[in-house]
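Problem 3 from the worked examples.
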Amino acid sequence: MRRSAARRLTLLSALVSALVPVALLTAPTAAQAVTVVPGAIFNDPSTGNTADQDRIRDYIANLIGATQAGAEIRVSEYTFTDTTVANKLIAAKQRGVAVKVIIDGDNLDLQSESGSQYPNLSQGLGEDRTQPSWLLACPANRGCIADRDLDGNGDAGINHNKFFLFSDIGGASNIVVQTSANMTEPQRDKLFNNAVTIQDAGLYNAYSAYFDDLVTYGTAPAGLDNYYVTPTSGPYKAYFFPRHESPGTQYKTDPSTDTIKLILDNVSCTGGTQIRVAIYQFERTQIAQKLVDLKNAGCLVYLASDDTTSGGMATDVTNILYGKLTKRVECNQDAGIGVHSKYLLINGTYDGTPGRKLVFTGSHNYTWGALRANDETLLKIDNSSIYDQFKGDHDHLMTYCAG
């Protein structure tokens, strides 16, 4: 499905925003003072506390508000209905920040995407890409780069990315914020999400080059059915999709080109390696079978997933996993609160080296669309302190979703 859970904002609010963006009602504001601290943060919709629910959104909004004139913000988002972040971006443009935003084309469908900030952003940023600031919507029925219809239904994927790039915030430069969260209300109060901040010039440049390719193909008559780039910068590695299967195979039958499966192939269970997964959608059976194989080989394998009509696990994945992992729990957005985070944690022997603590996170669900048909990002982080932050969140998910 192209569209995620039901939006809470109304079409009326979108049309009002289109006529009078809130940020345009006031004079340009000065940048706030914010200290950029690399690391991970997580929202928590389970406490009933608004600050816990809004933690990721408010963090991103504060970073935007702290970006000074002369700097640049680049954004690539799937669904965008959040007025706070939209108005922060418009205010940043007004005070002299170059603000460039890419959104999926679904945001133009105001009736389906209730509360879409497309009208607000379009008026506030403009759509003239010869200017320092602009908004670009990917073409209808495809991503910006991604242009492959897997099932012949006229739907050639989406721009499912969720990242923010800041050239400079108060002297801190080359900042990448990769999150699992769309800019919508249900992502805050109904779904667990994660975000990670990295300050690294090589990684920033890699994301920026990918952003430029999203623009290039997103303004061309056609995109690509295969775009798989994996730049590395020190302890960080990015994986940009879609990735095509090998010649002579079908898109569901080639584990040799399934990036998550290949990552898991590098894991050795010697010494009791721990594998932890938090995932929204899960339908790739080769990944499921690999997790079972690793558990059988002596690894400890923990899975927290969503279980809704829009997310959750495919039946054949459930059949593979049922009763065969160290522990598996499910949250359910339809019944209250769900899991929208997307991360894989490895603590142990990886690629022949013991004692590794690795995080793989981003926008990438374990779906065929994420692998073969969408604009997506997966980020590898080799950093023990960031791993520990993610593990703390995963421990919380394993406890809360079990209840």
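Problem 4, a separate protein:
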Amino acid sequence: MVEKALLDSGATENFLDEKTVQRLKLATHILKEPQYVYNVDGSNNKAGQITHSCQLELTYGGKNIKQQFFISDLGQDRAL
């Protein structure tokens, strides 16, 4: 399945919503060390620590690259 999206949230890392991971049945990996997530105002994110990630293959500038995405609850916004 090929999903197309172009997003620039300004985040310092790549994130995927846990519901999207489940819907697309993506393989996940447990992180060696959980990662904390902070909101733009410096407060802790309500989703808590990130414990899982997944690798996705992206086409960027005509090249295929593998990129790590951290899995978290991203709220109501969705890329469909």
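Solution to problem 4. The helical segments are 18-24. The radius of gyration is 13 Å.
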